[in-house]
Write a structure and sequence with these properties.
0% strand
């Protein structure tokens, strides 16, 4: 299973994230046009625990079946994983751009912004951009 990576397909939320989409989009273009696979494609995260793996499996089942039980189990096992919690919002009738997202983001920040996905050296936007 591939870990998370802080990548964006547009600069829609760059004001919030401070991250430009340029590096990621260049990687996508190189993959599509040249078949070039990013050098970190086989990256492993050493501290990825069994609960996170189980959460991803529950989320996958929930996404296919719309099973509320599996959505809840996934969120219970990995409550701050955006790939699971935020991605499930529209599948469960929620708004991934609304108050639910900002509640999740606040909990994430209060927990110290825990992130252990593929490290990215993304271009940060300058303050005056």
């Amino acid at each position: 299973m591939r870990p998370n990576a802080g990548e964006f397909g547009s600069d829609t939320f760059s004001e919030l994230t401070g991250i430009s989409c340029a590096d990621h989009m260049n990687q996508v273009k190189a993959w599509v046009k040249e078949g070039e696979v990013p050098e970190d494609a086989d990256h492993t995260v050493e501290d990825f625990d069994i609960n996170e793996i189980k959460a991803r499996l529950h989320f996958r089942i929930a996404a296919d079946t719309r099973s509320e039980y599996h959505f809840q189990k996934a969120e219970e096992l990995a409550p701050l994983d955006f790939t699971i919690v935020r991605a499930s919002m529209p599948l469960r009738g929620g708004n991934p751009f609304g108050e639910e997202f900002f509640d999740l983001y606040e909990r994430y920040q209060k927990a110290g912004s825990p992130y252990h996905g593929i490290p990215r050296k993304t271009a940060r936007l300058r303050e005056n951009d």
